[in-house]
């Protein structure tokens, strides 16, 4: 059996985090979590991550800043991790904002779990 892919979920809402985690675990993904922007950077530097679900409104360092920091990382494997923005207020951002920050895709809240799984599969090749 193929090695399971690792997804980092950067989300400060326990409800959304737990739901998302359950859905992806049912698809045989390994899940890591970060409740704030500082934890996101620590996680990507200490684990091999195949994709990140990045809530844009996380404390310490918001999702857009985390994305920019990851994209600027000296380690190319880290800099190229697919990042899927998750936000309840996508209207505050344009696709240009997402592209400029280095976001690969985005999912609006409330999350559509079928779309979530489909989007994660698209970026992990699973």
What does it look like?
Keywords: Phosphoprotein, Two-component regulatory system. The modification 4-aspartylphosphate is found at residue 55. InterPro entries: CheY-like_superfamily (IPR011006), Sig_transdc_resp-reg_receiver (IPR001789). This is Response regulator receiver domain-containing protein. Strands 2-1-3-4-5 form a 5-stranded parallel β-sheet, with helices on both faces. It has one domain (15-124): Response regulator (Rossmann fold, 3-Layer(aba) Sandwich), CATH 3.40.50.2300. With 126 residues, it is an alpha/beta fold. The chain is globular. 44% of the residues lie in helices and 19% in strands.
Question: How would you characterize the largest beta sheet?
Answer: 5 strands, parallel
- CATH architectural designation: 3-Layer(aba) Sandwich
Assembly of the depicted chains: single chain
Cα Rg:
13 Å
Please, what is the CATH homologous superfamily? Answer: Response regulator
Determine the N-to-C terminus distance: 12 Å
The total tally of domains equals 1
Q: Structural class, judged by helices and strands?
A: alpha/beta
CATH topology: Rossmann fold
Mean pLDDT: 94
Order of helices and strands: EHEHEHHEHEH
Number of strands: 5
Task: Enumerate the spans where pLDDT stays under 50 for 5 or more consecutive residues.
Answer: none
Work out the helicity level.
Answer: 40-55%
The level 1 CATH classification is Alpha Beta
Biggest sheet strand order reads 2-1-3-4-5
Q: Write down the overall geometry.
A: globular
